[in-house]
Amino acid sequence: MLLLSLCSGGGLVKMQRAQTQTQYDAWPVLQDILTREGVARQHLNSYNEFIQRGLQSIIDEIGSIDIETVGTPYKVKFSKVKLKLPRVVEIDGSVSNILPLEARLRNLTYASPIFVDMTVEEDGIVRESQEQHIGDLPVMVKSDRCMLATMNPQQLVEVGEDPKDPGGYFIINGSERVIVGLEDLSPNKILVDYEKVGGVTNYKAKVYSSIVGYRAKLDITLKQDESIVVKLPSSPVDLPLVVVLRALGLETDKEIAQAVSLRPEIQDKLEVSFEKASEAKTTKDALMYIGNRVAHGMLDEFRLRRAESVLDWGLLPHLGKTKDDRYDKAIFLGEAVNKLIELRLGQIESDDKDHYGNKVIKFAGQMIADLFRTAFRNLARDMKYQLERTGQRRGLNVVGAAIRPGIITDKLNNAIATGNWGRGKVGVTQLLDRTNYLSTLSHLRRIQSPLSRSQPNFEARDLHATHFGRICPSETPEGSNCGLVKNLALSALISVSVPSAQVVAKLYDLGVKPFKEADERMKLDGCRVFVEGRFVGFVKDGDALARSFRKLRREGQIHPHAGVAFFDSPFEGGTKRVYIATNSGRVLRPLIICDSGRPTLAPDIIKRVEAGQLNWRDLVQMGVIELIDANEEENSLIAIDFKHLNEKNTHLEMYPSAILGIAASIIPYPEHNQSPRNTYESAMAKQSLGFPTPTYPFSTYVREHLLVYPQPPMVKTRSTSLLSLDERPTGQNAVVAVLSFEGYNIEDAIIFNKSAIDRGLARSIFYRLYEAEAKQYLGGMKDTFEVPRPEANIRGYRGEKYYRLIESDGVVMHEAQVGGGDVIIGRTSPPRFMEEYKEFEVKGPYRRDTSVGVRASENGVVDAVFLTENDEGGKMYKVRVRDMRVPEIGDKFASRHGQKGVIGLVVNQEDMPYTEDGIVPDVIINPHAFPSRMTAGQFLESLAGKVSAIRGKPVDGTAFTGEGSESLEQSLKEAGYSPTGREVMYDGRTGRKFAADIYIGVVFYQKLHHMVADKIHARARGQVQMLTKQPTEGRARGGGLRFGEMERDCLIAYGASMVLKDRLLDEADKTEVHVCEKCGLIAYYDAKQRKYVCRVDGDNARISTIVIAYAFKLLLQEMMSLNIAPRLTVKDKV
Amino acid sequence: MVSIDVIESSPSRLRVRLGGVDRAYANAIRRIAISEVPTMAIDDVVILENSSVMFDELVSHRLGLIPLKTDLDRYNLPEDCDCKNALGCPKCRVLLVLDAEATDRILTVSSGDLISEDPESKPVSDIIPIVKLAPGQKIKLEAYARLGKGSEHAKWQPTSVSTLIETAKPDEFELCIESVGSLSAPEIFARAIQRIQQSLTEIAAQIKA
Amino acid sequence: MIVPVRCFTCGNLVADKYTEFQQRVKAGEDPKLVLDSLGLKRYCCRRIMITSMDIVDQLMPYNEALYRRHSEFTTERI
């Protein structure tokens, strides 16, 4: 059973007191887990697993290629794969190892070369053997292949890296890309379900059979007529179940029926299926039956071979791909059908697709394995083609020449750089969010669901009981992605794959009988045992088996990530099953093991963890904590806290607030807020400015923000220090009064104290990077960095004043004040097409001005200039411009409770209200922000902030366990303040006392990256689009503000037709068009003949000139191009 | 009957009880103490060299906020100065220079390193950190201080606290002024009253004319 | 960056007290009493003291490393 409580509501407030009373606090253990493993452990584990095992297994899967030449055919065998250190190959062929910093700076890809030992074999005789470079694999930062993984903090600083960077991302062409975790249904698991389509109920069993980089879906359907059919990915039609089983080698009806079940009521349900398969009596018949359908009209022998390959490769490949595995497949299929019929008979419940036990999360390793598998197959195919074409010659030199490493390198790079994984999968990778440190961490723990966001998928979006402790209940986006994009909870760990052979051996020791050895009794009512989707046999008492398995795991004899779950149907007759999971990607969570009402994790053990004498892995070894997946959790009874622990409990929660994710865990007192507010804050925390990285003085991110005086919050949560947000704050503590002020803070606006702004509150710096590289073109031409001179025949010369800031090397100097349009990197390029100037140009060769200028709407100071060289040998400049952003009206701010607002007014200090102590608030927010939103947490934070200042140290506001309001009030009273948090205040303009006392305290405010300076926009005249001659759109292009349909409707309704014409015609795309009155088509004015011409009516034409919108003219002409003659009827205006 | 009782008086803090005055007048003193009494602060910084991690704007901003000891009788507000020079003259501006370099250890450059051309107009404290230099980094700059008013920028505010509190009796208020150190609290009080008087006289003259 | 020169809220000079505050707290004194003895009564000024952080200190190691490498480089050339 599972206990779940939502974040809001009063129940948990009571829990908070319970926690403070009892001193049991297992936080140090959780802290040890997260600090030791790091927030990106799931990415790193997944990638490491791929480079250690996945890579080799994909190559082994191909094994060798047969080169069928006319003379002597030979074989190229692939054996050991080796991944070397990340490197760059320069244009001159020199090779050097690189570090992430260099890759980021020089726009390189941080990748390692893959080498494979290749052997040429002729008639089974080994000719030659050598390692060959087959391509480059992007390296995940801080993975086992990364140079940074083994460095200590000091060394990391030496190489210009942030010691606190979690890693887990790739660097492709200089930009950081994350492969976001992808939610997927559990592989190799039989999931049964029913669906109702128009009154017809179909029962279905699905299995996603997976091997490294490949997945085959098996669909078994129990139709309305009780017949059972099987759908395989390689077969275009459904195949009758009995035919498939027979083809797999079960010839007699008895064998087939027994493979399903020995129980008569289940065997009865197979009757229709047997009838449907009457034409295939033997295995050979059955194979031919399948062959006739998958390879229709081909030779007998070929059909047979196709049928066999369908069974070996397309059916349940996880059980093996050879003839010998067919028996296992038949047994597995039988079990799937058994489960399906049990569902049909109402003996078991259908499987819940949203249950986290039926899901796994795929991370970088698995995703890259998919890609690499296809890429390597392409490479092998290409090699075969090339070698067969070259014909007779053989030997390793020829083989080496036939390898095109680009096939793998380009495929991997392109996919990671764009996020297009092929087969319609887009958005798999994202640019790592570096807005602030917290957003980076949160990004690395994000999970995406493959479900479409345009469909409702209500159940999939809901919070599920099994999310508890695994997925954050608060942190999810609003809108279309709500509930589909999730974030891992602090306590969540992702399993790695455990070698299952060892586990299976242990099970046989524990009394599990394999299918062939089990007696009838056991087969009839024994418990079925599965390991990783493999049906391994029967056992008498499944529950006991599960318990002994757990015991072995706690003793350290089985890997801690192996999970065991015993399933008993709540209904009569259901088969009992034990599932043992050893796959990677399951979400585990640590729990404290309890024994007769006492946690085995004793307080003194926790103390030793706190002191660093023990780490959490030791605790797992000691058997006092264990990692539980969602299926195993169904067999546990977990006490929510120490106080509620009783004899029956098997486990105790580690720490209540660890159910939250990274973003939600920084909210103080979230249990006092209405739950959507915590969701809003989770989204906003990622937009707040702070101190993202200490490498900012030399970092080359395209946009970067930095808060000048960041402060860690005074009201902390336990995760603030756990996530190093003490060193990387995301906001400032402001003195906030809750008060209306002349209406300038209605609708969520906030009032700022001008003097506070003057003194540096919420000041931030914005960095933008401009870059330019000198490309080399065919024919020896190249771009040059220089000051473009007007006399040098330069096309696109912008005018002398724009180049004033650049020096003779073509680049601006440091600390130069730059504004919109100023050129900061001067560059000229050769003509785009060589022929161009030969034919037309009188003056001889010209060059184009391709200088880089500051964005039209931005300005700032040149902060840094980087000069480097890319891997194509081109010189490259990166220029960083900084702009100090002083808060102004319209800048967006938010507290940590989803209370966002923009500055509505900046008030002089002497006009602001003041307290008797002389405190003038930094921020005034409107009281109307509270009643409907119910963010009582902010009031508590305000109170706690004041207390913190009085005490001189931070107050703990952690969810469920933070310091309660009673003790805060007590502290306020002792310091001579009102325990209500209110103070007497005076109006600064009149000196009059306010009738009411004002709520004032210290609240952590975040400056969000939406600033007016980036958005302010107006236009009188400006650019128009070339095609339509209408004003351009958007601020970056100096566009107009759209006078839209609704605005048009207003004018129509009001009757202001002149204004309407002015906006929509005169000031938009007014044009004059000549129309022939006779034919109604467009005519033109011939300047040479000085007359109007109509191409239809020639001299007979009477031409008149009309004024229309250019867009309308365009429409007419587009219609003409479609062979439609739009004729205008022109009449004189009376 | 107007009365002024001094409750507490020190260079940093002044508390007076104002009796028999109008609330508007008393509050005007409070407001003017914040925004209209001029003080000295660095306003113009010429950065000759700065290789520190703190960028020029930030260093200048910090310099501006350093309170400087102010002698109001010696200096004129630039707009009132008879030099009529955009660059100012010795009567309306003070030059402070800073030149520091970290050799092989981290160096915290503080307000004490600022050398003023007028020894009387110097930072109120010598230990205000301005910038931290890593080994090999250098900072060299010229800073020009001038008189200004709090209404223009908070760096010219002479007060950190300026409150007017009601007392038990009607028409009696308690005014509290706390100085940041550039001017003494009693002087701020006196100057504020002077400033009101001056404004009132000006208005009176204008009404007559 | 480094401690703000003045309290954001009231304008009181706080930067000159920061080093002392830090040192005394590090030495084990109760921060509350240290703040009291430094004459910081208002919670606005106390907040600056408690929550200010010198992020410059996190940047210094990089510059020190750079300086070391630079001096190694110059000595090698000589």
CATH T-level topology of chain C: Arc Repressor Mutant, subunit A
Average pLDDT level of chain C: 92
Number of helices of chain A: 33
CATH C-level name of chain C? Mainly Alpha
Strand content of chain A: 15-25%
Q: How many β-strands of chain C, per DSSP? A: 0
The figure for the number of domains of chain C is: 1
Most extensive interface, chain pair and sizes: A-C, 46 and 33 residues
Percent range for helical residues of chain C?
55-70%
| Cα-based radius of gyration of chain C, to the nearest Å | 18 Å
- Tell me the major beta sheet of chain A: 6 strands, mixed
* Terminal residue distance of chain C: 37 Å
Helical content class of chain A: 25-40%
Runs of chain A with pLDDT <50, length 5+?
1-21
- Architecture (CATH level 2) name of the domain at 664-763 and 888-1007 in chain A: Beta Barrel
Q: Which descriptor suits the 3D outline of chain A? A: globular
Q: With helices defined by DSSP (H or I, 4 residues minimum), what is the helix count of chain C? A: 4
Task: Please summarize what this structure is.
The complex is a heterotrimer of chains A (1134), B (209) and C (78). By secondary structure, chain A is of the alpha+beta class.
State the main characteristics.
heterotrimer; A: 1134 residues; alpha+beta; Dna-directed Rna Polymerase Ii 140kd Polypeptide, Chain: B, domain 3; Hypothetical Protein Ta0175, Chain: A, domain 2; Dna-directed Rna Polymerase Ii 140kd Polypeptide, Chain: B, Domain 6; six-stranded mixed sheet; six-stranded mixed β-barrel; 33 helices; 54 strands; globular; disordered N terminus; B: 209 residues; Gyrase A, domain 2; RNA Polymerase Alpha Subunit, Chain A, domain 2; 2 domains; four-stranded antiparallel sheet; 22% helix; elongated
Question: What would you say this structure looks like, in words?
Answer:
The complex is a heterotrimer of chains A (1134), B (209) and C (78). Chain A is of the alpha+beta class and 1134 residues long. Among the domains of chain A are: 191-352, RNA polymerase Rpb2, domain 2 (Dna-directed Rna Polymerase Ii 140kd Polypeptide, Chain: B, domain 3, Alpha-Beta Complex), CATH 3.90.1110.10; 498-579, Hypothetical Protein Ta0175, Chain: A, domain 2 (Alpha-Beta Complex); 664-763 and 888-1007, DNA-directed RNA polymerase, subunit 2, domain 6 (Dna-directed Rna Polymerase Ii 140kd Polypeptide, Chain: B, Domain 6), CATH 2.40.270.10; 767-885, RNA polymerase II, Rpb2 subunit, wall domain (OB fold (Dihydrolipoamide Acetyltransferase, E2P), Beta Barrel); 1045-1121, RNA polymerase alpha subunit dimerisation domain (DCoH-like), CATH 3.90.1800. In chain A, strands 19, 24, 25, 26, 27 and 28 form a six-stranded mixed beta sheet that branches. The N and C termini of chain A lie far apart (86 Å). The longest helix of chain B has 24 residues, at 185-208. Chain B has a four-stranded antiparallel beta sheet with strand order 1-2-10-9, covered by helices on one side. Chain B has a four-stranded antiparallel beta sheet with strand order 3-8-4-6. In chain B, strands 5-7 form a two-stranded antiparallel ribbon. Chain C has 78 residues and is mostly helical. The radius of gyration of chain C is 18 Å and the shape is elongated. Chain C has one domain (15-77): Arc Repressor Mutant, subunit A (Orthogonal Bundle). Chain C contains four helices and no strands. The mean pLDDT of chain C is 92. Chain C has helices at residues 15-26, 31-37, 43-51, 56-77. Classes of the chains: A alpha+beta (1134), B alpha+beta (209), C mainly alpha (78). Chains in contact: A-B, A-C, B-C.
